[in-house]
Amino acid sequence: MTKPEKLIVDGKRLDGRGLNELRPIRFKAGVLKRADGSCYLEFGGNKVMAAVYGPREVHPRHLQNASRAIVRYRYNMAAFSVEERKRPGPDRRSIEISKVSREALESVIMQELYPRSAIDIFVEILQADAGTRVAGINAASVALADAGIPMRCLVSACAVGKVDGELVLDLNKDEDNYGQADLPVAMNQFGEITLCQMDGHMTEEEFGRALDMAIEGCKKLHQMQRQALIEKYGEMVSPAEEAHADGGEANE
Amino acid sequence: MEREIVVPGDLLGEDPKLAGSGTYVQGGRVYSANYGLVDRRTNIRVIPLSGRYIPARGDLVIGKVVDVTFSNWIIDINSPYEGLLHVSEYPERVDPANMSKCLHVGELIIARVADVDPSMKVELTMRDEHLKVLKQGRVVDISHVKIPRVIGRNGSMISMLKKDLNVSIFVGQNGRIWLKGDEKRVDIAIRAIFKIEHEAHTSGLTDKIKEFISKELEELRNTK
């Protein structure tokens, strides 16, 4: 790929978006049958699958924590997810992303409710098109809720970058490769920022504005995440008949 | 009654005194901690749509023996935590040396959760009425959050299943269900249970299942 002459033409970006627009995004909750919770996400050109297992027993045993559940997050990019075939397996980049993504989600999970257990999150990037770490966090957050894991709230994430001297929301591949800065941000719905990384250069004033743009983006994503979970059960909702389960009474 | 689906972090109310299960309080407001349906009848609680079984004292569960140690049987109770059944909690006196003669690995039992401590050590007992070793019949696993629907209001669903199909059924709170009776009828019952699990969030389920069973019974008679 060669560098495009200009990344912003007449206030529009190369893919036709305005400076403040997200790429087309589609969440689908509960797509994997064998996982406790799952989510498939298309985020522009990114295709991401997240699966959550747990709470479940911890192996190896020495990782157990007697007072809370441990959270494990594995971010993995499929070898075929990028244009130049990626060497399969964990590398420094994916280990770093796993760590920061785990920390972004850990703060909202009510870990103290499940001592000595593990919550495993697997995020597979099936197709990559810039912004995979934020896509992974968004998908994992929906998958965690789908698994029935108690959380304080959902976590949403999106990136802001600088291309051709302008701040733009949600970078695509060209903008990521040839832009001047990239700032992925994750936050929960109470406005607490749980992930903030940056590469490239921004002035202090730009950083402030970029953060505000990212926060707006996260709010939009939160709506979509919520919608995806509600849609899973559609309109057919209305169970009520409660037998507060004493198995014994109902049996014999 | 229409019920509202909520996701973690949704604001449910302003009165912290009403906070029930599946919710938490922050800054004097009640928020949802779970993905589920809100119930506002007495207090505010969220009925989860998914999740693992977490043992609580007094629950009746169906367990599977996975290991035998010096004085305990280790029981899988379909939960992140394993159950411990001490020799002294077996209905009869057992010599620790003969433990695997009474209960060997792979055997299924009905047990009661005697105690759960803060570190989630789960102690089971079999010293009570209708707690026994399951020698015959079949066991199926469903999601434990669907168990209240299998039982139905005041046991309406379960008693209908038992009556219409003439099979014995025991429902464990950990999502395992034991059935015994005529094989063909047990097949129907299992299919009905999976149908309940699948459609647990819809209304008028008891009638739907009743219809399903009578249709299946009809087919059974015709093939004979």
From TrEMBL, chain A:
Record-level Gene Ontology MF annotations: 3'-5'-RNA exonuclease activity; RNA binding
Main location: cytoplasm
E.C. numbers: 3.1.13.-
Chloroplast in keyword set: no
This protein's UniProt keywords: Cytoplasm, Exonuclease, Exosome, Hydrolase, Nuclease
Recorded GO CC terms: cytoplasmic exosome (RNase complex)
GO biological process terms held by the UniProt record: gene expression; nuclear-transcribed mRNA catabolic process; rRNA catabolic process
Subcellular location: Cytoplasm
Described purpose of this protein according to its UniProt entry: Catalytic component of the exosome, which is a complex involved in RNA degradation. Has 3'->5' exoribonuclease activity. Can also synthesize heteropolymeric RNA-tails.
Record-linked PANTHER family: EXOSOME COMPLEX COMPONENT, EXOSOME COMPLEX COMPONENT RRP41
Family statement: Belongs to the RNase PH family. Rrp41 subfamily.
Name by which UniProt lists this protein: Exosome complex component Rrp41
UniProtKB/TrEMBL annotation, chain B:
Family stated for the protein in its record: Belongs to the RRP4 family.
BP term (GO), one: poly(A)-dependent snoRNA 3'-end processing
Lineage: Archaea, Methanobacteriati, Methanobacteriota, Stenosarchaea group, Methanomicrobia
Record text on subunit structure and interactions: Component of the archaeal exosome complex. Forms a trimer of Rrp4 and/or Csl4 subunits. The trimer associates with an hexameric ring-like arrangement composed of 3 Rrp41-Rrp42 heterodimers.
Keyword Cytoplasm: yes
Functional summary from the UniProt entry: Non-catalytic component of the exosome, which is a complex involved in RNA degradation. Increases the RNA binding and the efficiency of RNA degradation. Confers strong poly(A) specificity to the exosome.
Keyword ATP-binding carried by entry: no
Location in the cell: Cytoplasm
GO molecular function terms listed in the Swiss-Prot or TrEMBL record: poly(A) binding
Protein name listed in UniProt: Exosome complex component Rrp4
Record-level GO cellular component terms: cytoplasm; exosome (RNase complex)
Gene designation: rrp4
Keyword terms: Cytoplasm, Exosome, RNA-binding
